[in-house]
Fold this sequence. Notes:
Elements: E1 5-12, H1 20-36, E2 41-43, H2 65-74, H3 81-93, E3 96-104, E4 112-119, E5 125-130, E6 153-155, E7 158-164, H4 171-178, E8 184-189, H5 206-221, E9 224-229, H6 234-243, H7 248-252, E10 259-262, E11 268-273, E12 278-285, H8 288-295
Parallel strand pairs: 1-2, 2-3, 7-8, 8-9
Antiparallel strand pairs: 1-12, 3-4, 4-5, 6-7, 9-10, 10-11
Helix pairs in contact: 1-3
Amino acid sequence: MSLPITKVAACHIAPVWLDTKATIQKAIEWIREAHSNGAQLVCFPETFVPCYPSWTALKAPVDNHDLFHKLCDESIYVDGPEIMAIQQVCLELNIIVCLGFNEKSRFSVGCLWNSYVLIGDDGSIMAHHRKIMPTYLEKLIWAPGDGAGLTVCDTKIGKIGALICGENTNPLAKYTLIGQGEQIHLSLWPAYSITRRPGDGVNYDLDHATKIRSACQAFEAKTFTVVCSNFFDESAREFFKKDDPANADCYDNISQCSTLFMDPSGTQIGESLKDKEGIAYCTFDLNKIVELKQIQDLAGYYQRYDVFKLSVDRTPAVPVRFLEDPATALTYPKPVKKETI
């Protein structure tokens, strides 16, 4: 048995703030750069398109209407031209891409989801996931997703699964991927978290928490893991300070999250980035999973399926389901347009 060896790229990258067209173009440029450096899989961070709406940490909802309206305007449909542009690049370059984005709803102009797509090297969408539960302040922006995207995709470079931000803390979501034989886990994150103002106690260390969560999945699932975080650049900082000058000190003192890789033992490997924008690279040799699976395999012999039973509903959520019997449908006559002489 010989498993794939693949080069992976994680984009520690800032969007062009609230500008979807420019952000998609930036993503395409970085995909091309990663491809030129031999990457077969490229990962982008949480809601990269058009941004992670972190203003909700400091601004009250009553002050956020304009920003939310702009976010809705710049958010995209999963079957829209922006995602198709990435699909075309994947087909052209024969490369796999995971892209985080703010997703619009066809049913509501004010409903958004925190989503990702995994696009195959043939340009097809292999997985489309909506974060099952927004975390903390995110509930002011995103609707809860569903289980439809809790899937692991079998590709030529390995079995790939992904979770968004706090989902990487959810044991049931994580085991759903483990139980499908996940070999490469993609973990998508924001650039930072603000839970306290400077001087008002210890701020929640999202970078530390991210590493714990990701190492846990790597160790328990025996996967190679990508930790891909947004980057908070100077243009974003200036945008926030201009929009919210009362909290300028918070934006000047944020601590960035890291982008990095872990092997199936939970050990950090490959390149990493934190305080500068760029692409981190790592080579995954999936053959190294086998020995660790022999020691402990939660998807195999080290599990008690007779004791523990997990059911996951992967039915896509829709606002309303219509139950109709065609045999009982009423028909209505239509008027006939009279010819005029």
